[in-house]
Amino acid sequence: MSQSGNLPEGVPAPNRSLGYGIIRWAQRYIVQPDGDHSGEPWRFTPEQIRFILWMFSIDDQGKWLYSDACLRRAKGWGKTPLLAALCIIEFIGPCRFSHFDENGMPVAKTVPLPLVQIAATSIDQCGQTLDMLRGMLAESPAEAEYGLDIGKHLIQFNDGRPGKIVPVTASSRGLEGGRPTFVIMDETHHWVDSNQGTYVFETLDRNVHKPGNPGSRWVQTTNAYNPLENSVAQRIHEALLSGSQRYLYDCIEAQADIDLSDDEAVAQGLRDAYGDSWWADIEGLVETVQSPLTPPGVAYRFYLNNIQENADGWMSKAAWEACLDEKDPVRPGEQIAVGFDGSIRGDSTGLVGARLRDGKLFLLGLWERPEHVKSDDDWEVDVLSVEAAVRRAFETYKVEWMYCDPPYWQDAIGRWAIEYGDDIVYEYWTNKPTRMVNATERMHSAVMVGDLKHDGDPKITQHVLNCVTREVPQGLLVCKNTPRSKRKIDLAVCSILAYEARADAIADGRLNRRRGRVVGF
């Protein structure tokens, strides 16, 4: 077990932390929300207690030792319940320094006008914490004694007193300019520029630390982040590594670079990462880590809590090579599905086919900037050549379904739908994460269990093996190893679309017969 954060050893002295009284208060007023002990008094684990004691530690003037806090732990360690408990504590509990008594012990008070915010990039992301909060308060001693109105999206006082617990997102009114007394930020490894997570963090950080807002602060939780994404979690960790003492950073992780094929090494790593989380099923987690459906990057980051820069390859070379089939080429007239991913300059444009009867992938066309052309500004995709390749595919094979990523090519896709059938040619927006996550997982799973084949085309292979994974709330997406990387992945995207088109064509009954017109997506 390795504490790679800055959490001090041991616990603070009783006269240097409000946490001792806070823990006693929480275990009196909060209830266990679910499980076999539902409705019983809430109990923190020893690791959670140690975090709270240091988070609420003070100096001899009663000021916080740490202005903010970050908890980086494995998936399922208990981060969300801890955040929910902290929200309740900051809303109605004794969590601010008042004075030292005659024995030199700190006396705490409640926040006069508590505004607790549950922050996320979308309202759905707040749901798990809100559900946990309602479960901890419903029929608890706190509900009656403090007169709480526990709503679905808002917790407040039922007598109209000011104060509330409320979710906020990038689209929330008043995000800029608010004056929260406490903010929780869950899963900040998901908070990146593309989903406005960075904006949400920067705004809330300014709000919390406004002049005239003493004692207010934020706490965030995260899994080990993907260092390719420049997430908020990464920014906080890098600030710690650069020597910042502003944040309390609590991180227990397994030994680095564990051999994921070694059962005992994985089990020990999981025991280290999960610490005293007694509910963690180590045996089941070993199976999850070693499953062929779990990419190494996910295993290291989410279960062993390790940051692994080079562990995020989407497809293992061995698994991909095991799907090679050179004996049964795709012949003219066979039923196929097609995936198209187009660009104008910079990225490649590709066209990949997937045979319906066995999912065999093969290249129909690739257009990328030649090496002798040094600048993207000096080269554009030959649109007429792409149009000719699409026409050739329809003339050579029996194309049953075609998925096309629309950016830059919507006019062309519209023409293809008119010419070849709008029950065959469909737009497929790869920037819609839920659909793309499912399609990506479908192809990855097919490779892992041997349900997919390919003809060994070197360009498809290169693009597939170039892919790394990016974790989003919905699951895993493929991406380049860096945004400006020259290692192209466009044919991998085409392959995912082609394999997904094959699945939908088969589901529509087109493997053995043609149906009439269907409704597009």
From TrEMBL:
InterPro entries in UniProt: P-loop_NTPase (IPR027417)
Gene3D superfamilies with a match to the protein in the record: P-loop containing nucleotide triphosphate hydrolases
Species the sequence originates in: Streptomyces yunnanensis
Protein known as: Phage terminase family protein
